[in-house]
Write a structure and sequence with these properties.
The chain is mainly alpha-helical. It contains eleven helices and no strands. The protein is globular. Bound molecules: zinc ion.
Length: 281
């Protein structure tokens, strides 16, 4: 693994969860990479590239002078839905009880009770007439993942885009009747409120990123929002397994506004449609 896991900036692995804004690197265009490849192939390997002298991609012309790396933008499907949504849902399900850090809040029997409530909320939401509402009814596979300790990033056989409906149902469940007293007792009022806040922010952000048009003013607000969001998200979810929150999917949010400025709406470079076509073949 290279020292610099992001192809768009020179962030190091240890800082992938940093909320601070990161400048796009000017060191990653094709010509510069070819130069480094000629002069110091070892350092190129340290940047996460395989030194390859005759790489045809170095000679291609790109719309942006930063070249190949900036032409491969992060996308909503992988960075947001499979990054933030799965970590948030799994982080919530894996919360430990405040009175006993060894016990999960969602024991098997409590999980069954919550699943029944989620089922009712999801079914009620599915009966709304709003055509933009995501799928919220999952009668056969349920809502909450129940992963083993070393597999905390699964989504319980759901497609990435279905995670929108799962998170929305979870948020409504918490805001409606959601076993309020039992949850407050096990999780603590403050922490529960933190989760409600970050669930709402995550849903709103993903919806916002799917907009058809963006103004420069909106993107400037988003640039100010991203550090706040990453800080709040990592502080709330507090993942400790594996690399914790030091994940490239968490970091890539920093680069969305630059990519929208370059390529237009985020839907233009989302990979949902091409992946769907590939999986159907
Ligand atoms: Zn980066």
């Amino acid at each position: 693994m290279g020292k610099f896991p992001c192809r768009m900036c020179s962030i190091t692995r240890n800082c992938l969860d940093s909320p601070n804004n990161v400048l796009i690197s000017k060191l990653t265009n094709g010509n510069t990479i070819r130069l480094i490849c000629d002069q110091n192939p070892t350092s190129l390997k340290g940047m996460g590239y395989y030194p390859c002298h005759n790489n045809v991609l170095y000679n291609l012309k790109y719309c942006d002078p930063s070249g190949l790396n900036i032409s491969l933008p992060p996308d909503i499907l992988h960075a947001i839905l499979l990054g933030y949504f799965t970590r948030l849902i799994n982080g919530f399900v894996r919360l430990k009880q405040i009175s006993n850090e060894n016990l999960f809040v969602f024991s098997d029997s409590f999980m069954d009770e919550v699943e029944r409530d989620l089922h009712s909320v999801g079914r009620a939401l599915a009966q709304q007439s709003d055509p933009d509402l995501p799928k919220t009814h999952f009668p056969s596979i349920g809502y909450l993942p129940n992963p083993k300790k070393n597999e905390d990033n699964g989504s319980r056989k759901k497609n990435a885009h279905e995670l929108r409906g799962v998170l929305l149902t979870l948020l409504c469940f918490l805001l409606l009747n959601g076993k309020q007293k039992a949850l407050e007792k096990r999780i603590g009022e403050d922490r529960l409120a933190e989760f409600v806040k970050i669930m709402e922010l995550t849903l709103v952000m993903e919806q916002w990123l799917n907009k058809e048009e963006f103004t420069e003013e909106e993107l400037k607000v988003f640039d100010r929002f991203v550090p706040y969001f990453i800080f709040t998200f990592t502080e709330t979810v507090r993942r400790t397994d594996g690399m914790g929150m030091k994940l490239i999917k968490i970091h890539l949010l920093h680069h969305f506004s630059t990519m929208i400025r370059l390529f237009g709406r985020a839907k233009n470079f989302d990979t949902f449609v091409p992946e769907k076509i590939t999986s159907q073949k």
